[in-house]
Amino acid sequence: EKRASVLLCVLVCHKKSMLMLKKEVNYQ
Question: What is the 3-state secondary structure (H, E, C) of the chain?
Fold first, then answer.
């Protein structure tokens, strides 16, 4: 159960970081 929640958090954090990277790329 804990591992599943951790994986979910990692996925969400990864998506957020990818979105931030895309925004930074768009600004350049």
Answer: CHHHHHHHHHHHHHHHHHHHHHHHHHHC
Residue 15 structure tokens? 């998506």
How far, CA to CA in Å, does 2 sit from each of 7, 10, 15, 22? 9, 12, 20, 30
> pLDDT tens digits, residue range 1-28?
789 999 999 999 999 999 999 988 887 7
Model pTM? 0.56
Where do the domains of the chain lie? Answer: 1-28
